[in-house]
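Consider the tokenized backbone below.
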């Protein structure tokens, strides 16, 4: 193939530099974590999905830091020039704006048998992919992932949620990491979110 038809990576998608390899690339001043860390974070996420799908919410709660902020802002459809306004800011409408204590309260209510919307309970399957982990200057890890959650309840109630998660992880805890902060962005418009009782 002639060089005239080759794409220059430096000009694609606004890229401004080319490094010697993907592991040397920096995003927002953070380099990719090493292979072992990527593997361990991936296993942490798969274990989290297993706990959620099996309804082991008390075990899931152990994966969360005491200073957790668990946030899923509402999104709205905006024109391209208004994209900065499409995600609601902190303090505005959110599907979740939780701490570990408030999530523990939700789980206690769920386990009490008083959460009628979840009796009989939903069945879920969490699929986690596109995991990338970067080292922060403060020693924490910045991890991004994509998810699809399939939820089924009774005979005909089916929901499929898709989106992305931006997490901050700390190297400690029962399973090697604990979740310090999670920001969830759903791909669906707010009007399509019929039931949001599932954890992400």
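A designed sequence for it:
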């Amino acid at each position: 193939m002639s060089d005239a038809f080759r794409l220059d990576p430096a000009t694609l998608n606004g890229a401004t530099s080319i490094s010697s390899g993907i592991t040397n690339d920096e995003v927002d001043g953070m380099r990719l974590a090493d292979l072992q860390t990527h593997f361990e974070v991936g296993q942490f996420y798969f274990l989290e999905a297993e706990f959620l799908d099996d309804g082991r919410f008390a075990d899931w709660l152990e994966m969360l830091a005491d200073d957790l902020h668990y946030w899923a802002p509402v999104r709205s459809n905006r024109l391209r020039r208004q994209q900065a306004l499409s995600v609601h800011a902190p303090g505005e409408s959110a599907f979740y704006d939780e701490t570990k204590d408030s999530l523990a309260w939700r789980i206690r209510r769920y386990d009490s048998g008083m959460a009628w919307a979840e009796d009989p309970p939903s069945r879920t399957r969490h699929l986690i992919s596109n995991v990338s982990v970067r080292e922060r200057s403060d020693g924490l890890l910045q991890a991004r992932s994509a998810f699809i959650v399939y939820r089924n309840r009774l005979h005909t109630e089916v929901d499929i949620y898709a989106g992305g998660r931006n997490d901050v992880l700390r190297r400690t805890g029962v399973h090697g990491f604990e979740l310090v902060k999670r920001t969830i962005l759903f791909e669906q418009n707010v009007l399509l979110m019929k039931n949001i009782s599932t954890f992400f």
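The chain has a mean pLDDT of 83.
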